């Protein structure tokens, strides 16, 4: 039997096409985008992201008097704690995403894919970046809104503003790294608890004068919004070095996670060395080198502020001395002094006062230390917060010095006419006296005894004095002002009682016996 072989019509042999090279960079980015969408669908991330944004928006839309004069080197630090819950959610959810294949038993199936394990790890790491970027947008919007206010004080720090976004990035990177080191769903929560304890201990050490707390992502020292502001040069916070430390630490942990997943490229090794160098440089840069000079500067600002302040005299002849960052607020102080002084009589109407800004850092930046009254005649104390209730409180300090001559005599007043005169000077020139009166009292009332707030110790009112003041506010302003000026000598004398002051001002004498122990 004969077999006939028919030659192919095409003599050229047809070879299969070689496989196209896989564009791994594009694949990594595509996987990262997928993981970002997956993270956004996770309930913890979605809830805490929304809560973070709503919290910031609510704060920005809620206007209070002191918000009109934000201290920018406190605003930048205030942005650091808001995204903490978001950071924890990102840590837990990125860890879960990195362990997804192990949980569902699909690890072996990845072996047939073109992406190596370390590239998939890199995609998980990159999925955290959008959340850090979104945090940066919120931080920038918060600070920009405050900085654009006409009454903004001081200046912010880019290093302080970077802490919030870097904390979110660090948390996400840590979640992926923990998945490569200890692949268990319980590890992230244990890590969060351990980190919290470490931060608490580090903060305690930092409060005692140590610098170890600076290795914490967030430096809680001096970050509370309740702390009284101080000049920025007295903070002693190496913000730029701390930001470099966080950047280096984020990059170092990213490199570590990628190396653990099998990455061995020269570029990755070079990035690891560079990030390690940046982290070490950030740590070394935060080591205090001039602690004695900083303490000396704080002591000077607290005890002899005139050495570091500049002064300016305004139209009424009074002098206003402030720390450099508060120079723009001095004209607001001058307006308060002028209006209070316009209701005074005798020589007080032309007295030239010295308004001096004061702080007290002897107990540390976080201590709630009240300022002691000045014993210098004609000197009025003003603090580092302005706006809201601080305006009428400052007016109380001005009126006290106009009536008594010095601040330290405010505690010596009892059942005499001087507290009535002081409160009349303050409230009669206030745009909303009946609303301001309760805000100046600790009990927020306009009856009974009460403690009046001031930049220093303030003063006490008896029930009778409160009654007289309330009655004066119901009478025509011009009539009472004329009577106050006509009887200025008697109304500023410690020998004139509250009952006698009421008679001089044509107000019904309050019933009952006055008691300074009320």
Number of strands: 6
> If helices are DSSP runs of H or I spanning 4 or more residues, what is the number of helices?
21
> SS-based structural class?
mainly alpha
Strand order of the largest sheet: 1-2-3-4
Principal-axes shape call: elongated
What average pLDDT do the residues reach?
86
Biggest pleated-sheet summary: 4 strands, mixed
Measure the end-to-end span: 133 Å
Question: Hey, roughly how much beta strand do the residues contain?
Answer: under 5%
Order of helices and strands: HHHHHHHHHHHHHEEHEEHHHEEHHHH
* Helix residue percentage: 40-55%
Radius of gyration, rounded?
Answer: 33 Å
Task: Describe what is shown at a glance.
The chain has 518 residues and is mainly alpha-helical. It has helices spanning 24-40, 43-61, 72-78, 84-98, 100-104, 117-126, 129-147, 158-161, 163-181, 187-207, 239-260, 266-285, 291-303, 330-341, 390-404, 418-428, 433-439, 463-472, 477-486, 488-491, 498-504, and strands at residues 310-313, 319-322, 354-357, 379-382, 450-452, 459-461. The protein is elongated, with a radius of gyration of 33 Å.
If you had to describe this structure to a student in words, what would you say it looks like?
This protein is mainly alpha-helical. Helices cover 52% and strands 4% of the residues. It has 21 helices and six strands. The protein has a four-stranded mixed beta sheet. It is elongated, with a radius of gyration of 33 Å. The mean pLDDT is 86.
Sequence-ordered SSE layout with sheet pairings:
Layout: H1 24-40, H2 43-61, H3 72-78, H4 84-98, H5 100-104, H6 117-126, H7 129-147, H8 158-161, H9 163-181, H10 187-207, H11 239-260, H12 266-285, H13 291-303, E1 310-313, E2 319-322, H14 330-341, E3 354-357, E4 379-382, H15 390-404, H16 418-428, H17 433-439, E5 450-452, E6 459-461, H18 463-472, H19 477-486, H20 488-491, H21 498-504
Helix pairs in contact: 1-6, 2-4, 2-7, 4-9, 6-11, 7-9, 9-11, 11-12, 14-15, 15-16, 16-18
